[in-house]
């Protein structure tokens, strides 16, 4: 269990994107972190009190000095992770979604009834995500209550900010006999028990780990269970996470069953709210966007898994212009990389493909969707501020009163793909190079809520 942090001051160059599309770089700034892990102040080098504040931090031994070539970035927020799928990351990606679930994913998730297996897998996952700079992780667990409790315990013990949900799935037509909730009542009771357990874990008084009501998606749940989960979420005032219009198959299934698409169905049921995260949302239309905006729900954009399983590209540029709260998700293991920085790259790439088109037979003017691209600035904003806003958390930027979740990126690591050229690379260039070329070896330190959880 990580202890409360001691107050300290970081001196160095900060890079963040507090406003969509804009990079702010503060060279030789001072970031004061209090004993609760919050940012007490950010002081630029030209401030009148800067010299005395720097001297005081040196004198009292609380100064953390960044070296040349090191940069402080906000911690990365992953809005969509299937925690039990970690052992199959990078496998079976040639299959369509429904076959992938039935043949590979449900059999793997069923193994988490074995708590020894669950512990080994979840500890490996959390360690790897922290090493990749994911300070906030949004986890789907399995149907197993005890294994999902264990996931919450492991995240807390390793100091990761997390949302954890026990997956609810009871529809016998879509869920195999060996892997589903026994009944509506048991699914709801277990969801309530998990919420109360997570909130009451010893050491979680500051709510570093939060519970989430987690209907897997509409096809896996009966209407009675969906209605019950909406009531539980309202009763406890906790987060909700589910999939939304992920693929043609899933989108069509909901339309056929409810006569409404995912967004409208979830809204009618009462599962859309300002603490709801909708994974994927590839096939939403303008009325759906208006509904999601009015409910203040967030979207987890998962660019890699969308390509593999959705055969479509989420219109991130349009959603951002619409004013939606959009962050990024790895979608482990539908997405084959645990790195949110890698998914920043992919978000840029798929937006370019959407705008330019990919059919070489079509004329250039008819090939793509105009004004669809984002760049590295918007991608990094989604990876930090956007994800934080979607979750309603004060992380993702270096501002007074925010939690100090941060990465120290070292561009001087030997044999790294990340090479900075003094006198040539602007601050924008440096962030872009970090996004495209930084590996986990470049992430030298990771802090969550002021506690150093990786590095020394």
Q: Which characteristics define this entry?
A:
456 residues, alpha/beta, Urease, subunit C, domain 1, TIM Barrel, 2 domains, nine-stranded parallel sheet, eight-stranded mixed sheet, 15 helices, 17 strands, 39% helix, globular
N-end to C-end Cα span: 17 Å
Task: Indicate the structural class.
Answer: alpha/beta
Low-confidence stretches: none
What's the number of structural domains? 2
Q: Give a short account of the largest sheet.
A: 9 strands, parallel
Q: So what's the CATH class of the largest domain?
A: Alpha Beta
| Assembly level | single chain
- Our count of helices gives 15
Q: Mind telling me the C-alpha Rg?
A: 22 Å
The CATH topology of the largest domain turns out to be: TIM Barrel
Q: Which strand-content bin applies to the residues?
A: 15-25%
Number of strands: 17
- Based on CA inertia axes, which overall geometry fits? globular
Please identify which CATH superfamily of the largest domain we are dealing with.
Metal-dependent hydrolases
